[in-house]
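re: ur question from earlier - yeah i can do the single chain one, its not a big deal. heres the input i used so u can compare w yours
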Amino acid sequence: MLPSCRTLDGFARKSNERDGIALQTLDAGVALTVKTRRSSYRLVVLDSARQLVLAEGGIFLEPTVVRVSGATFGGSTLKVGWILVGLRVEFGLGARQITSSPVQSVVIESPTPLGAHEERAA
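and the output i got, formated as tokens:
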């Protein structure tokens, strides 16, 4: 028998029980701090409809534009555009998919002007 999070119904139920953030609900310029078991990321929303963020931390040594594909327990099922506590964040970088360790916390910082990040990233 499969663990409940390994079935589609189980994944839907378990992911709905988690605290988290839907990127589609955030305005451009909003910054998030995402702490995982192994890393800490700072994400600044660039385009919430396409889940594009400017990522720093973890494997992103320099500010890097990536797509937050969504939240996963580590299998092939994905809650698109979400960051959920207890699940892993899947980032899209070109054709690569990068999966974080499990998220321990996600916090919305105060909105930041995009210009400040563009200057820093340049």
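The first helix runs from residue 8 to 16. not sure if urs matches, ping me
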